[in-house]
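Q: My hope is that you can spare some time for a protein that puzzles me. Underneath my words sits a plain record pairing an amino acid chain with its backbone structure tokens. Those tokens are not coordinates but codes from a learned vocabulary of shapes. Thank you; the sequence and its tokens follow:
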Amino acid sequence: MKTKVLALSLASVLALSATAQEVTSYTVQEPGKDVSFKREKGNWFISLQGGGNMAFALGTDAAVANDVEFQDRLGVSAGIALGKWHNPYFGTRLMVDYNWIANPYVSADIDRTHSLNPHFDFMFNTSNYFGVYDQARVFSFIPYVGVGYMASQVSTGSQDANKKYLDEMNLNHSVSANFGFDLAFRLGERVSLTFGPAVTVTNLLHTPSKGTDLHMPNDLLAQLRLGLTFDTGKVGFDAVEPMDYALLNTLQSEVNSLRAQNAELSKRPVRCPECPEQIVAEPAKPVHMSVVNFRIDSSRVDRNQLINIYNAAEFAKANNVGLTVTGYADAQTGSADYNMQLSEKRAREVARLLTDEHGVPSSLITIDYKGASEQPYGVNAWNRVVIMQSK
């Protein structure tokens, strides 16, 4: 019997320890840029795209301007990409484009060009950055910018001059700058339809032969493609509720105070040998102190701070004691007048929640505000706070 009790006690201690070490997460209700997310090993994706392209000459001589007919300048474009989202709004990918390009130069003997363009892109999901993060979001706007390498080869033709150029050119090597954006429409948990306008700035064709009048500087290749994106592995990110260091500091101070009281009590004798008269001391008045932390330049109470207001309200009602609600602002931000107004707003907002939301009589609440003239904590950010203390 004793063995079973010991085993159950040990299991309970281990379970309690595991619970204390667990990192909790909460539902995101703020823009992604204001939320901390856990680092995830997954969130890889593969994209397949196909569509058309059109080449434009950016700076040629007048004799070789963009005079080719519209329908004769259309080409074929395709791409495949492997990428990863490092957080809900920033990702990178390696994409390889194939283009069958029509020559934009009217006087050129070269008609068509094969090109291969691998490029590394930096992606920015503006929908998740400025909006509330939602893995099941139907539409996302994702601009990107990248840099790559382009190799172009001229196709065979019937003219002797074109064959001569082929012998001399073979492959054209150049650096590319890639820009564009993806309009992503989620079709399912792991599949999205992607519509992707893009622009590539590069040198499609060098001058085919020395001594000719054909000059071909940097060109622009416009692409319009449609495709599918497939998510692999772990999908989505979990938001982590940040630790409240100010509250932790307050609790630590209370623990130290209790330890000091216990040390003082341990010095007293176990019993009094001569106690002719016993004086009954009045019970100590209950004491409460808690804090509400604020974001910089804000008087709105965050959701993770509401529990502190609830606890203070329950204490005041249960013990019928008053609360002094004192607002502060940090000294390193704003002017003295502005900080005084901000600390007043913070104190009044906390007092409003105590009375309107939790039913504390207004007669029990005293509002005070110090601006940045007093800094209750040594860390600057901790002083964006309202302290609730029993009278």
About this structure: Residues 1-26, 60-65, 155-168, 207-217 have pLDDT under 50 and may be disordered. The longest helix spans residues 245-266.
